[in-house]
Amino acid sequence: MKKLIAAFTLMLAFSINANAQDKNTPSAYDLAKKQAAELTEYLGLDKTQNENFVGLFEQKISVLENKDLTKERKDEFSRVIEAKIRASLDSNLMDKLEKNQELFQKLIH
After folding, report:
1. What pLDDT does residue 98 have?
2. Maximum CA pair distance of the chain?
3. Which terminus of the chain faces fewer neighbouring Cβ atoms within 10 Å, N or C?
4. If residue 51 lies in a helix (H) or strand (E), which one and from where to where?
5. Which of 98, 21, 28 is nearest to 63 (CA)?
6. How far apart are CA 18 and CA 30, in angstroms?
7. Please, which residues have CB within 8 angstroms of residue 29's CB and are 6 or more apart in sequence?
8. CA-CA distance, 96 to 93, in Å (whole number)?
9. Comparison of pLDDT for 2 and 37, the residue scoring more
10. Could you report how far apart the first and last alpha carbons of the chain are, in Å?
11. CA distance 37 to 27
């Protein structure tokens, strides 16, 4: 009985430690939501556009986190993300975004 209690206690201790580590790392969705919020605030986008960008940025973050991708593949994917952003915004909003190079680079990389 003592061994069973000791085994249960160890299992519980390791599972609590694993859960604590998971909570420290934000998910791709959380990061995407934050980036989309920055873009929405800067450009004054509506709710639908914000939701569309959350999906795009979540996909971007998930793909770019892949350790198996080469630098060339990541660069090409960044160009695709840039093209999708350009296609989603009108020319006035795109000009405004290009003037803020720090935000623009953050969004495509």
Report:
1. 95
2. 72
3. N
4. helix 47-64
5. 28
6. 20
7. 54, 58
8. 5
9. 37
10. 55
11. 15
